[in-house]
């Protein structure tokens, strides 16, 4: 089978296992804190809903500015590895401040120093990875990127489970130290990793994608919807069920499906086209958001996770590759642009639910609307492409 051959080729490439380990451990560190960040600010620091949004928004705005600026110039650098190493060290410093925060000001400073440079990490890691596999195995570049992203997700969900149990044993302090351990591991592995430079050493069969501003807008909307869920679902779950650790278990339910769905999505996108698979993933997201708005049953929240897992797999796997292929000659910028879209979406998504009073499942009507608008855009693009292909085939037949 092709997938078995591709996997064997992937793991046999020098440096691939280091990249996998790097993303797995970094994912664990990130996942330990992610579902409890807003809860920590609310329960331990004592911030209000508006203050929590301001902390997230300011830190993300700084992240966005740094990510796209450095992403633009990173392709002129011979060695990109220095960027994520420096970013991770700054994140560690910020975490020291954040874990000792006692008020709004100290929490804002700590989280800003932690989050602002973190966009460089994912963008530059995948920029380096694309260069690495383009030189060693150009025919599996896209699937290599997807498997690396899936490995990060597996680590992330492993971190969710660890975070829930660490919280029960060592409260929020233990969770924050676990997050810091992820950054420390990342720095160590980056220093051990030998970065690939120079032109491709293997034949590349990856075709680029034409630049499409409307598709980038559609992806922005989908990412915005996911960002709203990422911040507010944990608050809604806490409001409905009263236990912070439940959110970690809900997100962990995705881990069972993540690797399979990302791999399946990658091969489906290669066969049917990225836009069609992104459209399908959006439909699953819409079904999940509508379920959140209409049910207060904890088992139902778990049942819809496979649907949402497919959407997330497409958004972070297929969509990431789609954006990068718009800029095949500028891997650093292409990877950073995708992170920029995700972070901009988060910044917008944090503010939109402020129009709904309190913490309520009605918040998820907002991502439902965003997904519907995105599906309309993608649907129109697919329709126009279909009409164009039909006209071209008709002309060829006439000739």
Automatic annotation (TrEMBL):
<feature type="transmembrane region" description="Helical">
    <location>
        <begin position="20"/>
        <end position="40"/>
    </location>
</feature>
<dbReference type="InterPro" id="IPR036259">
    <property type="entry name" value="MFS_trans_sf"/>
</dbReference>
<protein>
    <submittedName>
        <fullName>MFS family permease</fullName>
    </submittedName>
</protein>
<feature type="transmembrane region" description="Helical">
    <location>
        <begin position="277"/>
        <end position="294"/>
    </location>
</feature>
<keyword id="KW-0472">Membrane</keyword>
<feature type="transmembrane region" description="Helical">
    <location>
        <begin position="249"/>
        <end position="270"/>
    </location>
</feature>
<dbReference type="Pfam" id="PF07690">
    <property type="entry name" value="MFS_1"/>
</dbReference>
<feature type="transmembrane region" description="Helical">
    <location>
        <begin position="176"/>
        <end position="193"/>
    </location>
</feature>
<feature type="transmembrane region" description="Helical">
    <location>
        <begin position="362"/>
        <end position="383"/>
    </location>
</feature>
<keyword id="KW-0762">Sugar transport</keyword>
<feature type="transmembrane region" description="Helical">
    <location>
        <begin position="335"/>
        <end position="356"/>
    </location>
</feature>
<feature type="transmembrane region" description="Helical">
    <location>
        <begin position="213"/>
        <end position="237"/>
    </location>
</feature>
<feature type="transmembrane region" description="Helical">
    <location>
        <begin position="85"/>
        <end position="101"/>
    </location>
</feature>
<keyword id="KW-1133">Transmembrane helix</keyword>
<keyword id="KW-0812">Transmembrane</keyword>
<dbReference type="InterPro" id="IPR011701">
    <property type="entry name" value="MFS"/>
</dbReference>
<feature type="transmembrane region" description="Helical">
    <location>
        <begin position="107"/>
        <end position="129"/>
    </location>
</feature>
<feature type="transmembrane region" description="Helical">
    <location>
        <begin position="150"/>
        <end position="170"/>
    </location>
</feature>
<keyword id="KW-0813">Transport</keyword>
<feature type="transmembrane region" description="Helical">
    <location>
        <begin position="52"/>
        <end position="73"/>
    </location>
</feature>
<keyword id="KW-1003">Cell membrane</keyword>
<feature type="transmembrane region" description="Helical">
    <location>
        <begin position="300"/>
        <end position="323"/>
    </location>
</feature>
């Amino acid at each position: 089978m092709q997938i078995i051959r591709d996997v064997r080729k992937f793991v046999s490439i020098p440096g691939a296992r280091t990249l996998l380990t790097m993303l797995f451990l970094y994912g664990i560190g990130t996942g330990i804190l992610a579902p409890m960040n807003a809860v920590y600010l609310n329960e331990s620091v004592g911030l209000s809903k508006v203050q929590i949004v301001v902390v997230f928004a300011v830190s993300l705005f700084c992240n966005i500015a740094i990510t796209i600026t450095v992403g633009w110039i990173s392709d002129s650098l011979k060695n990109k590895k220095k960027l994520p190493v420096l970013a991770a060290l700054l994140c560690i410093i910020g975490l020291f401040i954040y874990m000792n925060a006692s008020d709004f000001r100290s929490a804002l400073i700590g989280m800003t120093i932690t989050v602002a440079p973190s966009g460089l990490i994912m963008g530059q890691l995948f920029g380096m990875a694309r260069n690495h596999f383009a030189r060693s195995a150009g025919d599996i570049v896209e699937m290599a990127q997807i498997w690396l992203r899936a490995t990060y997700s597996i680590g992330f969900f492993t971190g969710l489970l660890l975070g829930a149990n660490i919280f029960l044993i060592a409260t929020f302090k233990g969770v924050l130290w676990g997050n810091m351990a992820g950054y420390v591991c990342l720095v160590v592995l980056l220093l051990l990793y030998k970065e690939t430079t120079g032109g491709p050493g293997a034949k590349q069969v990856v075709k680029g994608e034409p630049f499409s501003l409307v598709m980038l807008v559609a992806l922005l909307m989908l990412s915005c919807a996911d960002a709203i869920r990422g911040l507010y679902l944990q608050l809604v779950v806490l409001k409905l069920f009263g236990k912070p650790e439940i959110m970690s278990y809900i997100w962990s339910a995705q881990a069972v499906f993540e690797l399979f769905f990302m791999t399946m999505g990658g091969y489906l996108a290669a066969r049917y086209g990225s836009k069609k698979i992104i459209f399908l993933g959006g439909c699953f997201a819409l079904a999940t958001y509508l379920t959140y708005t209409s049910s207060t049953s904890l088992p139902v929240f778990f049942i819809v996770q496979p649907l949402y897992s497919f959407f997330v797999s497409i958004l972070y796997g297929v969509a990431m590759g789609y954006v990068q292929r718009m800029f095949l000659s500028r891997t650093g910028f292409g990877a950073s642009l995708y992170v920029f879209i995700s972070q901009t979406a988060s910044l917008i998504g944090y503010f939109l639910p402020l129009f709904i009073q309190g913490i309520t499942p009605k918040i998820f009507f907002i991502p439902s609307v965003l997904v519907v608008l995105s599906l309309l855009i993608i649907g129109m693009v697919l329709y126009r492409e279909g009409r164009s292909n039909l006209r071209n085939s008709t002309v060829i037949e006439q000739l």
